[in-house]
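For the sake of clarity, the format in which proteins appear in this thesis is described at this point. Each number in the token line that follows is a code from a learned vocabulary of backbone shapes. One such record is shown here in full, so that the layout can be seen directly:
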Amino acid sequence: LTLASSELIIVKTDTAQGPAPCAVTCVGTTGRTDTNWDQHIDDGVLRCHVNMSGCGFVSKPIVTVSLEGDNSGFVSMMTGSSAVSEVTRDEFTIYLMGYVKTSFVSYSRLPSTEDAMQHEWTINWAAFGYIC
């Protein structure tokens, strides 16, 4: 890992702040065909653990996500798609709770691993934190 001059300023975190040159942005994706979704218990909720250990964070970073997929999968109407859970310095988890009933979609239902694979649901993420 090579450090260049840091232009990232982290104003507030839940953990101790490091020196300015140690603040980095690390981004990634789970991949359209590589995302490992699993059914959370038997409640129909989908779960994905995302590994970001390659970033080298020394404490819990700030993480933001987006869920991507082909349009026929109605990925924009999935609840939980921007909710990041269980963040550590090395990983985080996303839980997809189901489709939201709207005027466009007259039903709500739980997602399945088949939906996720068929519509290539992937998690794109950015993490902001300290590496020293």
Summary: The chain has a mean pLDDT of 83. The chain is about 5% helix and 35% strand.
